[in-house]
Amino acid sequence: MERLKTTGEAIQFIVIKLGNEQYGINIKYVDNILRMQHITRVPKVESYLKGVINLRGEVVPVMSVRTKMGLEEDVATKSSRIIIIKMEQHGYIGIIVDEVKEVVTLDMEQIEKVAYDSKDDKSNFISGVGKCESGLISLLDLSLVLPENS
Predict the structure, then answer these.
(1) If you placed Cys at 68, which of 48, 102, 117, 135 could pair as Cys (CB 3.0 to 4.6 Å)?
(2) How far is CA 94 from CA 32, 36, 89, 120, 125, in A?
(3) In this structure, are residues 45 and 62 in contact, taking their beta carbons and an 8 Å threshold?
């Protein structure tokens, strides 16, 4: 009976690739994963907002996580996907990723919080690092990645 107390809370993450880096997105926020499709541009918006798509009759804004994080511009390939994220304060928003790799389940013991480094802009978007068989995964803090008023 003692063993039951040692199992921490497990969280599932979708592992995505942006360039050569692997990132994790908490699966509870993922509504859908779509193949790349035509994105209708919207004038006079932030450069990381790529436009909007029609998802089951609803207009959903799509953003580039790469551009928001200061990485090089997205290059659409057959592996590129739009992940539809649903968050209470934002509603639906699509994020463009280079590739969706897998779903991993991490216990709280496998997740380490990261120390904030003001010189490294990318670290602003990371809530922690997960350790699993496929290596280290930087866990995205979606509340910091997504635009404030979408």
Answers:
(1) 48
(2) 9, 11, 14, 25, 17
(3) no
The residue type found at 3 is R
24 within 8 A of 130, measured Cβ to Cβ: yes
Tokens coding 67: 């551009």
The two three-digit tokens of residue 104, written as one number: 């991993």
- DSSP assignment, residue 144? H
* pLDDT in single tens digits along all 150 residues of the chain: 333 334 468 899 999 999 888 999 999 999 999 999 999 999 999 989 999 999 999 999 999 988 888 888 888 889 999 999 998 876 899 999 999 999 999 998 899 887 665 555 555 788 899 998 878 999 998 877 777 654
Comparing CA positions, the residue from 46, 41, 55, 45 lying closest to residue 83 is: 55
**Which residues in 28-44 are b (16+ Cβ under 10 Å) and which e?**
ebbeeeeebeebeeeee
Task: Give the whole-angstrom CA distance, residue 147 versus residue 150.
Answer: 6
Gap between the Cα atoms of 12 and 28, Å rounded: 8
Residue with tokens 């360039």: 19
